[in-house]
Structure formats: C-alpha cells, structure tokens
C-alpha cells in the first residue's frame, strides 16, 4: 500500500470513527515519555489495518522516534521497549 492510498483511506473517514488508532486517540500517545503509555500505543496498533505499511514506511524513512506500526522506533530502528528516564537500577550485589 502506498502512502497516497493510505492518506486517501484515512481522509475519507471522519475522525473518531476511522478505525485507525493514531487518528482516534491523541497523537502524543505515540510519542510518549512514559513506558506504560508507549506500551498502550503499541497495543492499540495491533488491530490497525495499516499496521504493516505504517511500520514499513517508518523504517524506510528511518523515523527518529515513536510508535509506528505497533513497534517502538528509536533512531530509526525497532527496540523492544522504552526505558524510563534516569539511571538504570542497580541489581542487588551479594557478598560471597
């Protein structure tokens, strides 16, 4: 599916009734800072009819960040999940 076909399909449906999550929900959700919000956006994408073409296009464009096609992209590549800001937690160290 080409970008023009996707755009035409989206434009022909009214907002909030499109069946396309990124049109039906606040767009900021797909660029959220909180990992739980990112996971929610990824879950919303699972039933989207344009999921595969969305991800394919984002990978071709090397999108710098955001949820595209149900996957999180960081610097143009898919990453498993978003890490929260700050330093990672240290694992407990046990003295032998």
Automatic annotation (TrEMBL):
The keyword Nucleus does not apply. Residues 21-78 form the 4Fe-4S Wbl-type domain. One of its GO terms (cellular component) is cytoplasm. One of its GO terms (biological process) is cell redox homeostasis. Upon Fe-S cluster removal intramolecular disulfide bonds are formed. The Fe-S cluster can be nitrosylated by nitric oxide (NO). [4Fe-4S] cluster binds at residues 22, 45, 48, 54. Its main location: cytoplasm. Residues 1-20 are annotated as: Disordered. It is found in: Cytoplasm. Its cofactor is [4Fe-4S] cluster. Acts as a transcriptional regulator. Probably redox-responsive. The apo- but not holo-form probably binds DNA. Belongs to the WhiB family. This is Transcriptional regulator WhiB. It comes from Lapillicoccus jejuensis.
């Amino acid at each position: 599916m080409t970008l023009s076909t996707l755009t035409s399909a989206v434009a022909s449906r009214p907002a909030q009734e499109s069946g396309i999550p990124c049109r039906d929900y606040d767009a900021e959700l797909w660029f959220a800072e909180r990992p739980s919000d990112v996971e929610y956006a990824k879950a919303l994408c699972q039933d989207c009819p344009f999921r595969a073409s969305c991800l394919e296009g984002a990978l071709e464009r090397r999108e710098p960040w955001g949820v595209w096609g149900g996957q999180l992209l960081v610097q143009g590549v898919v990453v498993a999940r978003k890490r929260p800001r700050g330093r990672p937690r240290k694992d407990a160290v046990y003295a032998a």
